[in-house]
Amino acid sequence: MFRLKTAIITGASSGLGKEYFKLLTELCPDIEEYWLIARREDKLKEIVSCNPKVKCLVLPLDLTKNESFDIYGQKLTEKKPDVVMLINNAGYGKLGDAVNIPIRQQTDMVFLNCTSLTAITLLTVPYMKEGSNIIQVASIAAFLPIPRMTVYSSTKAYVLSFTKALRRELKKKGINVLAVCPGPMETEFTSVAEIDGKSTLFSILPRCGVREVAYNSIIKAKKGKAVYTNKTIYKTYRIIAKLLPHNLIMKKL
Ligand SMILES: NC(=O)c1ccc[n+]([C@@H]2O[C@H](COP(=O)([O-])OP(=O)(O)OC[C@H]3O[C@@H](n4cnc5c(N)ncnc54)[C@H](OP(=O)(O)O)[C@@H]3O)[C@@H](O)[C@H]2O)c1
Question: Which of 57-71, 111-125, 187-201 has the lowest mean pLDDT?
Fold first, then answer.
């Protein structure tokens, strides 16, 4: 059976995911089909209609639901793609003390940021060959616990840890796994997280360009790197988080 070289992107309807799609179509002419996953089908279809020459499969799935993994798994069985790039990008955060944020919003966050990323990865790996890439979108929030983003920072620490260990396991298959840890980007993330005007720290942190993050992480993945963080300030933060006791740094947040 002829297997199409395929890229799969979760959270492709906006922000970083949408940018990954745009960039891959420009940088990787060998990719024959794209699977775009998010809840908002209209947004995905709009993105596809702007790229009429690119073969796309729109999968409107809510990744906080177990049934979505069944639908995704069935699609893989049916189409048997040759997945050359998997980008697990769907995710969200919420700002506030954990005890004050509705529990469902936080358990869904854990499910989307951790469970769905794990399920999509493990379902897809059997369809990947030597030389293929997995990009897992974490955050600088993965480097140490962040009060008022307690659940979010914990989910991203999971993503980073899962990525590092899986990377070792998949080395023998020749599949590279990269964790991307961006600083704040101007996307819908801010409004979903209800951060606007509520966090002095977030408002003063330097912004990372969405295109720059997407472009550099694709290049780093292709070079076989393990972790990508942009901007000197966030690279330094990562080193500090490795060297100093977390309690000490958390007092300054
Ligand atoms: N922006 C930042 O400051 C920042 C910084 C570091 C890391 N990140 C990470 O970057 C990734 C992308 O975020 P972004 O900044 O591009 O924000 P965004 O514009 O809000 O994008 C989030 C994407 O996730 C999808 N999504 C949300 N809930 C979903 C669900 N239940 N099922 C399926 N898809 C779902 C959204 O699509 P639908 O709403 O259509 O479902 C959307 O496409 C996230 O993992 C985020 O944690 C963001």
Answer: 187-201
Q: Is the dihedral of CA 9, 14, 15, 19 positive or negative?
A: positive
Q: Which atom of ligand 1 is nearest to the CA of 152?
A: 47
Helix %, strand %, coil % for the chain, to 5?
50, 15, 35
Q: Is 96 in the pocket of ligand 1 (CB under 6 A)?
A: no
Q: Where are the domains of the chain?
A: 5-250
Q: Is 24 strand, coil or helix? A: helix
Query: Ligand 1, closest atom to CA 62?
Result: 32
Q: CA angle at residue 89 from 87 to 92, to 5 degrees?
A: 170
Choosing from 92, 207, 213 the residue with most ligand 1 atoms within 8 A of its CB, the one to mutate for a pocket test is 92
H-helix or E-strand spanning residue 218: helix 210-222
From CA 118, how far away is CA 124, in angstroms rounded? 10
Q: Would the pTM count as exceeding 0.70?
A: yes
Residues 125, 219: contact at Cβ < 8 Å? no
Q: Write the pLDDT tens digit of every residue in 183-214.
A: 999 999 999 999 988 888 888 999 999 999 99
Instruction: Specify the CATH number of the domain 5-250.
Output: 3.40.50.720
**Rounded Cα distance, 94 and 107, in Å:** 11
Is 159 a pocket residue for ligand 1 (Cβ < 6 Å)? Answer: no
Please report where in the chains the tokens 């600088």 appear, as a residue. Answer: 140
Residue-level length of the chain: 253
| Closest protein CA for atom 16 of ligand 1 | 15
